[in-house]
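Notebook p. 47: complex prediction with zinc ion.
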Amino acid sequence: MKTSRAEAERLLAIGEKLLQSRDLSSSRDFAILAQEAEPLLEGSDQILAIVEVLLAAEKPITNDHLDWYAILQVDRTCQDLDLIKKQYRRLGLLLHPDKNPFSLADHAFKLVSDAWAVLSDPVQKAIYDRDVAGSVEPESFWTACPYCYFLYEYPAVCEGCCLRCQNCERSFHGLSIPSLPPLVPGQEAYYCNWGCLPMGFVFGNLGSDGPGPGPGPMVENGPTAVAVSNGVNVASRKRGRPRKGV
Ligand SMILES: [Zn+2]
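Predicted complex, structure tokens below:
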């Protein structure tokens, strides 16, 4: 019968192999399993530290900006330099290539060092915070044109504003409707009708992003509340109610 330690070592060896092949999520799973089997087993926390840092680095905030906060595993609104320093020290100890024998430890260590270089310097941190501030996905709400029942998603700042329907061109009050239209046909529901929209109507100002493969809502990134004509376009319309004025 296997001891829990032998089992933990087996799991950790798998996690290590997965890390070598850069299968980060699976590597993490096995490191966690190893840790659960034998909490004192050396190495599982080192693998976890590498994987968490590399996974955070895979999700940059913009093309130019890695998410330094996620890399140090602190909240993006964190202003607590002591906490940031504590995280840097903890991860630095776990990841230092002299101490951490696993693949990619050097890479993760460099990321943590770079994160600390930015976030520990008030000037660099302020510039970074400013640069990424506009990139956080804006809050939005859904509203419906009361005349033609087209649905729109707008930035939250437009809520309560007078909006202009891009379908029937009438003005209406931008009242929030409680929830996203369900994308499942068959219920007393809304359904997505991307396919029914004339080419160029919906996607005209979305640039290279284009329509995704799925029916997800398209969110206009522009922050202006008044640029109604640049607002988000129709995602769906109400079933059973014919459009008017098309
Ligand atoms: Zn309308």
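Notes: The first strand starts at residue 140 and ends at 144. Strands lie at 140-144, 151-155, 162-164, 171-173, 190-192, 236-238.
Next step: compare against the earlier run before touching the bench.
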